[in-house]
Amino acid sequence: MKRENAKEASLRTLMIAGLNGDTAAYRALLSGLSGHLRAYYRGKLVRAGRGTEEAEDLVQEALMAVHTRRHTYDPTQLLTPWVYAIARYKLIDHLRQSQSTLTNVPIEDASEIIAAHGEPATESSLDLNKLLARLPDKVRLAIRYVKIEGLSVVEAAARCGISESAIKTNVHRGLKELSAVISQEKTK
Questions:
Q1: Structural domains present in the chain
Q2: What is the DSSP letter of 103?
Q3: pTM score, two decimals?
């Protein structure tokens, strides 16, 4: 556990330094993350019945996404959950785009691939952002952290500075409200 905490602290320190313009620290961060991402993708690809050679492409895609989205990282929060949320979405997109059969996909990822199948990612993202914009900030953030970024309720509560039960309530109420909005849109 201490090793994980030290590694997280080290990566987070490198990220913050990189955000502040330290290019050497940023290069070290990307180098450190590549090893973690490579191991993550190899494990997931093997479980999906895929070859580990696909891991390198996914590592590069994830690192590019980390780079292009680095401005969205909140330096007061843990880095690795943010990175792994990006990595997870890259994996799901890759499996969906490469027409992976659902029988080979790990069960925890199958529902997300089914939900995403057949819809352009950009349009879905824009629609989702429009829907979320209708919600109060605390509700929108709870849904974003738990349902979109894949943080645990504990992590989301820490990030929002509210209780775990408040996160659960906000997610529940927010999803209920979004469902009502979607139902109204369909009847128009």
A1: 1-118 (1.10.1740.10), 119-188 (1.10.10.10)
A2: G
A3: 0.52
